[in-house]
Sequence to fold (490 residues):
Amino acid sequence: MCYHRPMILGRVLLGALCGLGLIASTGLADEGAQARVGRLSAVSGGVQYHSPAGTWSAALVNEPIGTGVGVRNPQGAASEIRIGDSLLALDSASELSFLQLDTDTVQIGLPQGRMYLHIAAGSLAKTVEIDLPGGGVWLTAPGDYDIVAGDTQEAARVKVFAGHAALGGGLDDGVIAATPPDAFDVSAWRSANDPNDDAARLPRGVTGGEALATAGDWDHNSSYGDVWYPKDLPVDWMPYRYGSWRYLPPWGWTWIDAAAWGFAPSHYGTWVRLDGRWAWVPGASKGEPAFSPAVVGFLGTPGIGLSRPGNDGAAVAWFPLAPGETPDDPDEHYRNRRAATIVPRPVFASGKMVQTALLDLPERRLDDAPLVLGALNIPPVGNGGSAFVAEADPPPVVVDHVAVVTPVEKPAPQLAPQARSKRAQIVRIHDILRRAANKRVPRAAVSASHHWRAAEAAPARPRPAPSTTVTASTHNRRHLAAARGGVQLR
Fold:
């Protein structure tokens, strides 16, 4: 199954079991790791995605973003990431990794390149830390930030359009740039401030809600509460039919929907037929909902799939769960069983597009097929020219000077005594900054010798307003507006 009921497991043990295919992608997730998941919301150019415990592959819109995920943009490429109502835009020739992503802490490594981060009020985490090659930046308030990693050819730079940033680990006031926003900042800021009229209808923390407004209509149902109807669908459309599967540890088999709006309805809530139309039911807002790689039930036999007549090999079949259903009840009626999508097993396992390889089976066969109650146990296939897994790691974004992120609070092994003393000071600063999230620390609490400063919003404009006179960007990047339609641009 692909329906998560969080359980407390060690992350290392979980990753090992997922890698061996010994557990299903259902109900075996670390609660902290699954409580906050973002999505890759737009890609332009040859953007690359690295799943936790996986390898680099060509990025797809709607791939999940969690602890251990990496994203990199070659020269000329760009990407956007949404986490709830917050947004991160990654510029051309840039790379980042999420060292930690949960409800308490967001820690991002930016070894090279440039990023814009919009932190919506109350939507991200108590602590937001950006680790650069030369130190660390702590974003202690909602706002808009532009951060350049810095390397041997360019100094680190932090622009604070609104909010508050604290610096440490070797960074000082010299990295604060009080300059007006350029084209990259304005483009990202406009994206971050797209209206989300559906926020009040969704459980808090659901990622992807901003994409629903223009793609469907809301209504209120006496049985299910607020429901959302997608519009302009293909004739044969079903939930979990237009897209592909990827095996992404620690989540396991994960549905990547082809529609720009498909993230939230694929990973939260359930689907039901109402008056001949498919309606998505997000569910009641009781705390932050758990992310699921896909809210579906699989039919057939673990490790094999669903048998079919002839010698054409096994198939894989799945259907969307309806409100109140779970994937582990053999006596459940399962209202959407006949809405199953069926493809040859090689199509499923190699991550190919589902809608181009559909199979038909008699409804009675779907009614009689057993439900897979344990692990699906179908391993991924990475050969045969599939884009599912890269054959080898692609070359670094900038080959001649690749910076390596070292978290500023983590001591390096076998440091010299003088270096250990300096690192101890950085650790102490980091602890003070974390405590300052809830209590303002007097400036005297940290001596000037520790080389850290707090940067208030002080640019020429506190927020970048839309403008038609902004200087053209110096980066060779395509505008991401075209990429938000859910199709990867080549």
In short: The chain has two domains: 30-196+404-481, 207-368. Residues 207-368 form one domain. Confidence is low (pLDDT under 50) at residues 1-34, 383-416, 437-490.
